[in-house]
Specification:
Elements (H helix, E strand, L loop, with lengths): L6 H17 L2 H8 L7 H10 L17 H14 L5 H15 L2 H12 L5 E4 L15 E5 L2 E12 L6 E7 L10 E7 L5 E7 L5 E13 L3 E2 L7 H37 L1 E2 L2 E2 L4 H27 L5 H30 L9 H14 L4 H10 L1
Parallel strand pairs: 1-4
Antiparallel strand pairs: 2-3, 3-7, 4-5, 5-8, 6-7, 9-10
Family: Belongs to the acyl-CoA dehydrogenase family.
Cofactor: FAD
GO molecular function, one term: flavin adenine dinucleotide binding
């Protein structure tokens, strides 16, 4: 297994880091977070100009033909800058499902404009009673003549507050918890009967809860896998991509915390000398650095294992990565805050914001306990 970046990937990494460094500093992020939109529309269009929105999609779809490793490089930059634009929601989740099971016409109508920065997508599958089970879906999809009627509730739809179209997963047969019987649809955000409750999350990211009350969509909006793939299988694969993307984002956030904390230990004076001369703090700094390296290795491993055709092996790898990211993110985040003292949790200092984002990443797509159970089940 090759764990080295190619020259093209190194160039991509440098371009992402340069953008974060020059155009998305912490003060800019705070202004964007306080805005009505919750992200920078101009930056979203720049992502399209850079080609970031087209990375994971094939050339036949109008994309660049990259893979999860390339997406992970961008997501690591997202973590470094705490970028608020809905890259995960639109590219990895909504665009990912559309790419897997959408028709050519659907991709031309929704996926290609997203890659051009003209619209945003989202994926709605989680429900209030589902916890982390992606198949615990009670929302219904009933065919009535030439249209489908959707009813139900979706929660924690990443990017759902600003999405122009939402990939909605509902059940046409079976009971909540069953993998079979699921259907997926492209639902325009302004569809009659669809209501959204947007909100800001603990880390400043935006999401929404959806209510579908007799939403009707034409049969052409239904995502029908051409190769016989079950919608449930496609949904699970997209969520696994989301786990790998979050792991890469966590690595970027942890890298900033490690660098920031090291600089603080070198400059903060106490009793006439830098606090970094304290051996106990040096040991804790070493633990943070080791945890970062471990997280980086597991994030890359997760991205590479997404290529594995063996579904149980892929699930084990992604669950193992999520558990390791949970452990390392907790260690790095808590140590960074503690070594900065009380100022580590103030709104004015970036450290607390990185800690909040890492805390939310640990909960995304299943916490460590849930993934431990999934790992053992394989």
């Amino acid at each position: 297994m090759d764990l080295q970046y190619t020259p093209e990937q190194l160039q991509l990494r440098e371009s992402v880091e340069r953008f974060v460094r020059e155009a998305y500093d912490f003060s800019h992020r705070r202004r964007v977070a306080a805005s009505d939109l919750g992200h920078d529309a101009a930056c979203w269009r720049r992502y399209a100009d850079f080609g970031w929105l087209a990375i994971p999609f094939s050339e036949a779809e109008g994309g660049i033909g990259g893979d999860a490793v390339d997406t992970g490089i961008v997501m690591e930059g997202v973590g470094r800058g705490l970028l608020l634009e809905p890259y995960l929601a639109s590219v990895v989740l909504g665009g990912g499902l559309l790419s897997l099971i959408g028709s050519e016409a659907q991709k031309a109508e929704w996926l290609q404009p997203m890659m051009a920065g003209e619209l945003r997508l989202a994926l709605a599958y989680a429900e209030p009673a589902s916890r982390y089970d992606p198949f615990h879906i009670a929302a219904t999809a009933r065919q009535e003549g030439g249209v489908w009627r959707l009813d139900g509730t979706k929660t924690l739809v990443y990017g759902g507050d600003c999405a122009d179209a939402i990939m909605v997963v509902a059940r046409s047969a079976g009971a909540p918890g069953e993998r079979a019987g699921l259907q997926a649809f492209v639902v325009p955000a302004d569809a009659p009967g669809l209501s959204r409750t947007p909100y800001a999350m603990h880390d400043g990211q935006r999401a929404a809860d959806l209510r579908l009350d007799g939403v009707t969509v034409d049969a052409s909006r239904r995502l029908v896998p051409a190769d016989g793939t079950e919608v449930g299988d496609a949904l699970e694969r997209v969520i696994d991509h989301g786990i790998a993307a979050l792991a890469a984002e966590a690595v970027g956030a942890m890298a900033v915390l490690v660098d920031t904390t090291l600089d603080y230990l070198k400059t903060r004076q106490q009793f006439g000398r830098p606090i970094g001369t304290n051996q106990a703090l040096q040991h804790r700094m070493v633990d943070m650095t080791i945890a970062l390296d471990e997280a980086r290795s597991m994030a890359l491993y997760a991205a590479l294992m997404l290529r594995d055709a063996d579904a149980p092996a892929r699930r084990r790898a992604l669950s193992a990565a999520k558990m390791e990211i949970d452990r390392t993110a907790r260690l790095v985040g808590q140590e960074a805050v503690q070594m900065h003292g009380a100022m580590g949790v103030t709104e004015e200092l970036a450290v607390g914001h990185y800690f909040k984002r890492l805390s939310m990443i640990r909960l995304g797509f299943g916490d460590a306990d849930w993934h431990a159970e999934r790992y053992m089940a394989q």
